[in-house]
């Protein structure tokens, strides 16, 4: 809604600058209509502050969706001053009405003692209630408790299982955590092939999260000795063979990106004939010298068969 209002406002401004009174009047009327409720014609919020005030008005009427919205704004300081005490108050109000996102958000504040007294046991209860309603953050936060032994007996295997549930729901942070589990063998069988079985979605998640983690840690995915690219391609190809189209597209994109330069000296393919690594078939080199240098620099730690 705010994007449409901004677009109409720009059109009205351009018409005014162009000295076109009829066009300016037309766009001004459209803007006025866009800024009003189509049913009651009440003015709609046009900025963060007005959005907060409108949400606060509904939150005070006891509407759970508005209480959650107000809580997130108090938590982030959007449209109002940051106030974790009020964020906790409204998250709890919405959670008690059955709002699943507020359950996990309130639990997170309880876990960290932000805006409310720290209470791990109570936080865990809210995470569990959220998970019962199939909310991925509820599973993810429980996984974090078990992985680190926060208020519970440390159980890395259970943490990995909880991360996987949230990851399969599409929760990106859980996908990264699951990727870390595979990267470090946390709570998973030594043989990831056995752990993943024929789950194409899980394989695709592992492939993408390996790349995300490397990008976050090192700013890029092709740092020799720390590159997950060959392993990511391996899992991506496995997922593609089982019908995961997103994984197939991701593997092709990786191949296209790496086909343009030598992995060691960055010499472009336009000036030399690049040849693939004979083992992983992922990285390319302009010659044997570059291949040897890259191998010694750390590619020997990253390289694996991908077919």
TrEMBL record:
Keywords: Metal-binding, Zinc, Zinc-finger. Residues 1-20 are annotated as: Disordered. Residues 262-303 form the MYND-type domain. PROSITE patterns: ZF_MYND_2. GO terms for molecular function: zinc ion binding. It comes from the Eukaryota. SUPFAM superfamilies: HCP-like, HIT/MYND zinc finger-like. This is MYND-type domain-containing protein.
